[in-house]
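To the structural biology subgroup,

Please find below the input and predicted structure for BFN domain-containing protein, which we are adding to the shared reference set this quarter. The sequence is reproduced verbatim from the submission form. If anyone notices a discrepancy with their own records, reply to this email rather than editing the shared folder directly, so we keep one authoritative version.
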Amino acid sequence: MEGDRKLPIVIGAFEAQSIAIALEKEIQPPRPLTHDLFKSFSDRFGITVKQVIIHKLVDGVFYSSIICEREGVEEIIDARTSDAIALALRFNAPIFTYKTILDKAGIFLKFSSKETEDGNNDESIVVDEILQESETVEIESGGNTGYRELTLDELHKELEKAVADEDYEKAAKLRDEISKRN
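Predicted structure (tokenized):
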């Protein structure tokens, strides 16, 4: 179904981080995250994720299924919606839901004129906007020093440290600050 309706789903911090990593191709964790490991495992054994279906909503909890295929045989696997989305992103698999679920829980998001002018309604736009709005968070390095106070070299060092510490939210903010200066 095409349109401006979005399905807001509340998820945990780990799952949100995993989804953000999948959307932000530039940030690579030093070691594979759980969903990355699942993707590698699946690739090794010839299993593909064909699609994800968000098929039920009960008491605010979404229920999802992952449709997998191996050697022409499809299997349906029950999954938490956050995990299903994280895997769908890694497999470039479509995510579907039913109109009844969208009618019950969907919301309309208005895209800015900049986004509609270039015709890009990619989900990463929403993530980028969220990250840009939160860029005012300050780095804790002995004191309250904002990003603007740091040199490019210091920003790059902080970025490397954030990735090594698996603090991907901070890494994304640092990456954005570096991009603004380049």
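Summary notes: The chain is about 45% helix and 25% strand. Helices lie at 13-23, 34-44, 81-91, 99-105, 113-117, 123-133, 152-164, 168-181.

Regards,
Lab coordination
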